[in-house]
């Protein structure tokens, strides 16, 4: 009679079950290692301009313009920041405040107008809804540069030239924002709105108390995109803002360049100052951005 040492037929010896650490080691294949190496290399390539900008801002004027360029400042200098922040001819802090006010106000207007229009196009039934949405999408194919002269004339007639209103209001209606939020609203189950309607909520209450709280990822994404667009805008502020104290950062920093000389150390110091708020916002809002884009159907 033959006996078995494995116990019950078909049973698995617990000692042969791989642990979590063993599973992790088994998944570390050469292909996985190669993928991580490529990701690290690509990450370094994309981040290298940002690193070089920061490094150059701490160089002296001569070293910043020297060739070949160096990656380590020698000596480490704060002269560029001292010059750009203390010079009466380059009120960088005022430019920074102007850009911040304009970008925040424009982002708020973009989110407000786009959210209301997108909700109407996503949920409300009215004649010509598809035509209206098609016309809005059609404006995305119009190059913004051809609108400079009409917008300039309108802003001039309203008395907004050389004021922050000129860089806040004209771009408050965003066709992309309407499309983006409409796609997100369509992903929200209609049963939630029907339940609120049965509880006696009117359309405005449903929009404010049901739709908007559920749409925070998409709203945060759109707000950040609008803020970045306004913050980085250069051409339009140059046309409508004349006095040095009313300039925004991109337009103001362009005055640091002249026909005969370019202060690269000052330019890089100004670029660092302009980049800090954007980087901070992205760090805190990246989770909402990923969720908003993935749920709005813009993956790819």
Order of helices and strands: HHHHHHHHHHHHHHH
Largest sheet: none
Q: Given this structure, which CATH class of the largest domain is correct? A: Mainly Alpha
Please count the helical segments.
15
Low-confidence stretches: 1-10
- Structural class designation: mainly alpha
Relative strand content: under 5%
- Helix percent band: 55-70%
Mean pLDDT: 80
Would you identify the CATH H-level superfamily of the largest domain? MetI-like
DSSP E strands, number: 0
Kindly report how far apart the N and C termini lie.
Answer: 65 Å
CATH fold-level name of the largest domain: MetI-like fold
> So what's the overall shape?
globular
Describe the structure.
This protein has 2 domains: 19-83, no CATH class; 91-295, Orthogonal Bundle (MetI-like fold), CATH 1.10.3720. Helices cover 66% and strands 0% of the residues. By secondary structure, it is mainly α.
What is the gist of this entry?
By secondary structure, the protein is an all-alpha fold. The protein has helices spanning 20-27, 30-57, 61-64, 79-86, 92-123, 129-138, 148-157, 165-168, 175-186, 190-198, 203-214, 216-232, 235-240, 249-253, 264-295.
